[in-house]
Amino acid sequence: MARLRSDFWVSAYLRRCSVEGIEAVLRKRGAAEAGAIFVKLDRLDGTASLYGPAPQLFLDDSGERLFAPILQDVMPLDVEERMTRELRFDPDLWLVEVDDRQGRHFLDLASAE
After folding, report:
1. Residues 96-111: what's their mean pLDDT?
2. Domain at 6-99: CATH code
3. Name one Pfam family in it (predicted).
4. Between the CA of residue 31 and those of 7, 84, 112, what are the distances in Å?
C-alpha cells in the first residue's frame, strides 16, 4: 500500500492535535511528497523529546508512518541542536512542534517486538 504524502500527513496530524486541544505548529515545511517528518514534543517543564522516522526494519506493508524516539526527556536546546544537524543532512525534512504538559503526541511508534 502506498504511503500518504508528507504534506497530507502533516496537515492531518496538525488537525488531530488541534481537535485534541493540543498546540502544534509547523516549524519547517519539507518536501511535499516524501520529506522525512520529525516531531518535537515540548512538555513545557524544561524537558522535550524528539521523534523521527522509524528505521526501515520496522516498516511493514500497511503504509503507516511509524516513528521512533530519537531523544527523550532532554533539554529543549538539545533537540534544537539535533535538528540543526538533521537539517544540514536533509534540508527537505519536516519539523512539527507539539506543546503538551502531559506528553501526548499521537504518533504511531515502532515496536521492537
Report:
1. 94
2. 3.40.1530.20
3. DUF1491
4. 8, 17, 29
